[in-house]
Amino acid sequence: MLDLLLPIKIKVILGTTRQRRFGDKPAHWIADEARALPEVEAELLDLRDYALPFFDEPMSPMWGNGSYTNEAVQRWADRIADADGFVMVAPEYNHGYPGVLKNAFDTIYPEWIRKPVGFVSYGSMGGARAIEQLRQVAIEMQMWPIRSAIHIPPDVYRAVMSEPVPANPDLFRPLKEGRVNHVERFFKELLWAAHALKRARSVD
Length: 204
Hints:
By secondary structure, this protein is an alpha/beta fold. Helices cover 36% and strands 16% of the residues. Strands 1, 2, 3, 4, 5 and 6 form a 6-stranded parallel sheet that branches.
């Protein structure tokens, strides 16, 4: 059964569109980490490439059938639909996460449900408050937010900040060293949930 459900498709979503953003660097790095895993297909989705309108539809996508009138929204939905799991890379702005990422959640619905999601964040407190809020949104979307997250610490942030894109992956090595390999634990949880939920969706 498991072989029939491979590969696992992971979509890495870069959840900020601001100018001179830092997010490109951890997004490319974590996408490459996912691509290095066996039986995983990873794709990086940049919200800059999807000109999503602010959600203003008269009916919630919860009650739709996955068909959208706006071309950009439909293109976004099509990219999300075949995912088995997600990694969302988002900064913390003012104790929260970017509005463009919330809008990316809100514009579609059935494409998200019964799929796991993990978060990579940076900023004040390593993005901890942004991630806590994102977990609440994910639960409402019937997603499965995993317990582990990757918080970019200040020393790594400063080391990577002036790097080109993609950044030298060795600069992220502190996240793999020490008492806990945070990257290994993160993907272990994400892929366990992705396999389990993919099997469940196949018989639902």
